[in-house]
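Hi everyone, sorry if this is the wrong subforum. Our group has a chain we'd like a structural model of before ordering constructs, and none of us has done structure prediction before. Sequence below.
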Amino acid sequence: MEHSLQRLNAAQRVELWVERIGECRSSGKSVRAWCREHEISEKTYYYWQRRLYQQMISTAETVRFAEVSCREETAPNPSTTAKISLPGATVEIYPGADTQMIQTILQTLRTC
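Answer:
Right subforum, don't worry. Here is the predicted structure as tokens:
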């Protein structure tokens, strides 16, 4: 499995590891058990976890200001692909949204 990663470009590897780390965390298993089950070394897992965390921090530090418009609750928009509602904030993601923009929005929400 690890050899197939060499054929992926950097962005694809990052996306793959974001998925893997999310899957591991939501599995309810220990990192050791999850890695063993997926034939991934723990050292590799923790390397990517640290790398992605550092990338998230550096991205969050570069975002200084984001314009947020508030509006009254309205009927759901039929073209909305996803809607994330948190106390005090709602984010609607529409078809064709840029992956980097979605990642930035999610990272920003994590800091709130």
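For your construct planning: The chain has two domains: 2-62, 68-112. Residues 42-62 form the longest helix (21 residues).
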